[in-house]
Amino acid sequence: MTGTGGTAFVLGGGGVLGAAEVGMLQALAEAGIRPDLVVGTSVGAINGALVAADPTPGAVDRLRGVWEELASRRVFAGSVIGRVGTLVRTRTHLHPREPLRELLEDALPVGTFAELAVPFQCVAASIERAAEHWFADGPLLDAVLASCAVPGLLPAVEVDGEHYLDGGLVHSIPVGRAVALGADTVYVLHVGRIDRPLRPPTRPWEVATVAFEIARRHRFAADLATLPEGVTVHVLPAGDPAPPGAANLRYRDFSGVSARIDRAHVAARDHLARIGVSRDGGA
Known about the structure:
Blueprint: E1 7-11, H1 19-30, E2 37-41, H2 43-53, H3 58-72, H4 80-90, H5 98-107, E3 120-126, E4 131-135, H6 140-147, E5 157-159, E6 162-165, H7 175-180, E7 185-189, H8 204-225, E8 232-235, H9 257-275
Helix pairs in contact: 1-3, 1-9, 2-6, 3-5
């Protein structure tokens, strides 16, 4: 798609909060807005790959099903003793990769980037090069798993002799990538944190969260501040009534997934109607 213009969906990272992106995708589908390019990070790579495989409205129902499977299969299951045992055995992570791999094998209808209906790229962090790496061709599953390899929770993914961790470490909301690939209309699907002010941490577990938020928001703000002339970016609302707070620490809690999808759907639908976006993606 490089240099040709078109509409891009940019799906950010955020763990279980990524369910909000499904609601946003539903609103976009109902408005008749179809992507020419999909770019994803971490959980946004899962959502993005499924949409790129099938950009029709029916994909939203399948995505809802995947999120229900994430809950029912308990991808991050295990007792405290079991998780500690995995950590002691591996010395690097709390959960095995296999449950998520099996779920994605069942969910993804294609095996390679070339088979996708819409061009798709996802990002991961290379350990050896300490740099972002964009997957755009070859096997799809390992690329998505690499983008989702949350440090400490899941093991690094090896691809062609190089090891990768979660893409959110290097590019959590990759608007700049979509623009570099030629998109002139960008819809940003995020997990509901970027539009809320940060406060100094008051508890030990908030320190890392605030530090990560500063890093991710700084790059996103820099991307927006350096947009080329003629590029339009729509940041869709997630519809959260209150800041997610420590929700990312409760990464195994999928109980609010359906409600989060529905809130994001309503908020994004109303937003699209308010800004008067047409079915060709323009205002």
